[in-house]
Amino acid sequence: MVSLTHNAAERVRTFLEQRGHGLGLRVGIKKTGCNGYAYIIDYADSVDADDEIFDQQGVKVIVDRKSLELIDGTEVDFVKQGLNEAFKFRNPNVKGECGCGESFSV
């Protein structure tokens, strides 16, 4: 399961309303960076056969099964720090992260 904090769910709802369409939030991973994997986050306009769907506070979180193996149990938060704002991931499967925080290993 991939979950959203209240702040993340509110942010996704706001983005989807402004956008005017979309099913929810797509969360995944890709191989990259100095530690192996990086998170991918985008709007979901469709659901594929290999996707898992989690309803979190009225927001659909869509994750492909291959990514779910590495991010199962992850909590997605939305944080503001000064002028910066971003989605943050709390993944219990992470064994290491790179210094810049852009990639992780499991």
How do the helices and strands line up, and which of them pair or pack?
Elements: E1 3-4, H1 6-19, E2 24-32, E3 36-44, E4 51-56, E5 59-64, H2 65-71, E6 75-81, E7 84-90, E8 96-97, E9 104-105
Parallel strand pairs: 1-6, 2-5
Antiparallel strand pairs: 2-3, 4-5, 6-7, 8-9
> What does the average pLDDT come to?
89
Oligomer: single chain
Tell me the series of helices and strands, N- to C-terminal.
EHEEEEHEEEE
For the record, give the distance between the C-alpha atoms at the N and C termini, rounded to a whole number: 17 Å
The percentage of residues in β strands lies in over 45%
Low-confidence stretches: none
Class inferred from helices and paired strands: alpha/beta
The CATH class turns out to be: Mainly Beta
- Name of the CATH homologous superfamily: HesB-like domain
Largest sheet: 4 strands, mixed
| Alpha-carbon Rg, integer | 14 Å
Number of strands: 9
Integer tally of domains: 1
How large is the count of helical segments? Answer: 2
